[in-house]
Amino acid sequence: MRKIDIFDTTLRDGEQSAGINLNTAEKVEIAKQLERLGVTIIEAGFPASSPGDLDAVQRIAGTVKNSIVTGLARCVQSDIDAAWEALKGAEQPHVHVFLATSPIHMEYKLKKTPDQVVEQAVAAVKYARKFFPLVEWSAEDGFRSDREFLVRIIEQVVEAGATTINVPDTVGYASPYEYGELFRFLRENVRGADKVKFSAHCHDDLGMAVANSIAAMENGADQIECTINGIGERAGNAALEEIAVALHIRNDIYPVQTGINLKEIKRTSQLVSRLTGSLIQPNKAVVGKNAFAHESGIHQDGVLKHKETYEIISPALIGEGEVPLVLGKHSGRAAFRDRAIKMGYELSDEKLNKAFQEFKKLADRKKEITEDDLITLLTEQQVSIEDIQLYELKSVQVSYGTDNIPTATASVVTPDGDLRTIAATGAGSVEAIFNTLEQLVQSKVNVLDFQVKSVSKGRDALADAVVNVRINGATTTGRDSSQDVLEATANAFIDAINRNIIHENIRQKQVTEV
Ligand SMILES: [Zn+2]
C-alpha cells in the first residue's frame, strides 16, 4: 500500500502561534509523544532563531530515535550551520530550508529578482547537502507563485540535491481542486520529479487545510505537513489527527497508510493542549470534547439500537477511555511507578516521589482518580524546571462575600529569594488575585484571556487554569492544574510571569512563515 509520510510541525509552525512558548522540557515531552504516535518526521524548531530553540532541537534530536528530526533554516549559510549544530547527532539528519517564490514575497519582502532567488536557493541546497543526507526545500507562498517559475526553481534545487520539495499554501488561499491540480502539474512538468518526494503544507484560513492536504495527496504528494489540534500561525495548520483518522476511516477511497498509531491520538492531543495552553473547541473533529456526544433524542435512540447508525468513528479508535485505571487511595509507590512507566513516563526518583505525593493528596480528596488526572500530575513533574530561579507562589487567600469587597492576600518568593506578601482588592475574586500578584511581581501585566476547565468529570475534578497575558509587549500563556480553581488561577498567573522571564532571557523570536 502507498505510504504517506506525516511531517509534524507542532513544535515549529505550531509553537510559532501567538502566545505559545514552550520550555525545552515541554518540547522534549511533546516530541517523545509524537514519536509514540508514529509520525515520520518531527520539525522540532528553528535553530537559528535563538539559542533556546537550538538547544531544544538538539535535545530532541538526541532523544527521538524512531522519527526523523528536522529543523527549519532560511536559505543562508549561518542558518544551515545552526541547524547542523543542532541536528548532527540525529539518527538521520534532515534540514528544512525555505525561500519565498511568489511575486509579492520576492518583490516586497526579499527585494530580489527571480534570478537572484533561484541562485540563492540552489546555493543553500548545495551547501546543506554537504552536511545533511536529507534536505527538504520549501517554496514559501508556493501556491501563489508563478507556475513556470516554480517548475524552473524546483528543477534547479532538485539538481542541487534536494530530496523533498514542499509547496506550501502559506496564506491558506487555495481550494482543494486548485491545490491538487498544482501538484499534478508539478509532477508532470518538473524534470526529475520522480526522484524527489513532494510535500503539502496547508494553512486553515478558509477552513480548507485538511481538504487541501488530501487533495495534494491524491495528486502525488507523498508527505503531508500538519500539527496536533491544528495549531499554528493565524487560523492554524492542517490538523494531524483529522488527516490520520480520515485516511483510516475512508480507506476505501484513500488506499494509503500513514504509520500513525491512532490509539495515541487522544493523549497526544491533550498533552499538546495542556502544555501550549490552547484549549480545544468542544466540537473539534476527532478530539473535541463533544466529538462523540449524541445529544438529540433520535440520535441517542439510534446509537443505542445500533452504534453505527450515527457513529462513524469509535472513541476507542483514538485511544479514548482505553485503559481502565486501577489506582486509588490505597495504591502504593510501586504500583504508581509501574503505572507511570507503562504510560511512557521516565521520571527521576525525585520527580516520581513528588508526583506520588501529589497523587496521594489528590486521592484523599477525590473519589476516583482518572487516567487524565494521572497524566496531569505526571506531566507537571516531567516538565518542571528546577535550575532557574523564578517566582514561586507560597500562599494565597481570598475573602469573598456577595456584600463584601473581594480581597486577596498572597505571598510569593521572588527570584532573588525574598518573601513578599501583599493584599489587594478587585471587582471579583479572580481580579483580586490578579491585582495582588501584579503588585508582587512589580510589572504591568495585561490579562488578555483567562479560562478554566475541568480535567475530568465530576464536582471534585481537577481544574485547569490558563491565563494569557501581555508583559512588556510580549505575549505569554501560563497554566496550572489544581483541585481548587482559585489556586490554579494564581499559579497559572505566576507561571505566565515565569515564562516571560525565561523567554526574555533566551529568545528573540523571529517571525517566519513557511
Ligand atoms: Zn506554515
N/C terminus separation: 30 Å
Give a count of the beta strands, DSSP E runs of length 2 or more. 16
Rg computed from alpha carbons, rounded to a whole number of angstroms = 24 Å
Low-confidence stretches: 507-513
Bound molecules: zinc ion
Globally, the shape reads globular
Measured by DSSP, the beta-strand proportion falls in: 15-25%
- The DSSP helix count reads 17
**Average pLDDT, all residues:** 91
How is the main sheet built? 8 strands, parallel, barrel
Strand order of the largest sheet: 2-3-4-5-6-7-8-9
Helix content: 40-55%
From the helix content, strand content and strand pairing, which structural class follows?
Answer: alpha/beta
Please describe what this structure looks like.
The protein is an alpha/beta fold and 514 residues long. It contains 17 helices and 16 strands. It has helices at 10-14, 24-37, 51-63, 77-87, 103-110, 114-129, 147-160, 176-189, 209-218, 240-249, 265-276, 297-305, 333-342, 349-365, 371-382, 429-441, 485-506, and strands at residues 2-3, 5-8, 41-43, 68-74, 94-100, 134-140, 164-169, 197-202, 223-226, 256-257, 392-399, 407-413, 419-425, 445-454, 463-471, 474-482. Strands 2-3-4-5-6-7-8-9 form an eight-stranded parallel barrel, surrounded by eight helices. Residues 507-513 have low confidence and may be disordered. The chain binds zinc ion.
